[in-house]
Amino acid sequence: MNKAKFYWLIQILCWSIITLLSIQHIEFNDFSQSTKTIYLLLYFFSGFVSCHIYKIIISRFSPDDITHLQYALFPIVGGLSIGSIYTIIDYQLYHYSDTSFFNFATIFVENVWKVFPWFMFFHLHRFLSIYQDRRQREAHTENLLKISQLESLKKQLNPHFLFNALNSIKALTLIDSMQARESIIQLSDLLRLSLNLGEQQKATLSEELRLAENYLALEKLRFDTRLKYDFQIQEDIGNILIMPMTLNTLLENAVKHGIGQLKFGGYITITARTEKGFIILCVENSGVFVPKPKNNEGGIGLENLKKRLELQYGENAYLKIDNTQGKVFATIRMPY
Fold first, then answer.
1. Can you tell me the distance from the alpha carbon of 57 to that of 60, in angstroms, rounded to the nearest whole number?
2. Any stretches that span the bilayer, and where are they (predicted)?
3. pTM of this structure
4. Less Cβ around it within 10 Å: N or C end of the chain?
5. Do 70 and 219 belong together in one domain?
6. 62-87 pLDDT per residue, tens
């Protein structure tokens, strides 16, 4: 049921109940049938129409401009207004023998008390609707901001990755031109895949692994026997969707700051497994991890990755790097 239908249904229901309750404080049996009908119709339609006019007036106020005091005063003003209308109807149709101010005040308070709960409900429902709409707008704006930030961060990845790959080919051209030509073909495939992944919000694990294999094969041409690597992937998880360009960032860091800093090179092991709704990616490489200052270009890739994980998953994901016995373990845990 949409908001408009819900509003009119509640209007009819509430003012019907209020109309029936109104006969309790007067001697309704003394009325003629025509007077009873007029009384009930006047009570119902005066409340129904007055409340709708009240709603139109209230709607002219911008929710963002209404103070807490105004929120508290609105239902009081509404209750006093319709309570006054009901009191006038009572005095016009039923000739009270006691016309004292005390009797008038008593009837007025009874009429206000009858309609006040409706106005409290009306404003509570309106406040919750406004709050929900505001939260949805804020969530939408926050989501757009996150998407914008993610796109900006992903655009930083390709130049960083391209720079490393071109360095590999540059070194290779001095050694073997044929292999350099093959490497250029590999790089072309590699860039096509990385660019496609960079445009996506999610990528399959198999796509990420294919990119990783291409990248390591290209780096293998540069490092030769100094670089050895191995993939240990859990079966049947290739279709899991993850944040794109995650694994490759870890590999770039492992090659550049791990293997590349060792005279005799080292070993890289890539593992992927699932655990209770999370996928865990780990890149293990020979070497020692030394955190770089924030103004050092060596830390851009990892800081970028941390920001992307935070934007995409919040506290549900993390990047952790540990040093253990001459090896570096870079681990990503994120939901899927």
1. 5
2. 7-26, 38-57, 69-89, 101-124
3. 0.53
4. N
5. no
6. 766 667 777 677 778 888 888 888 88
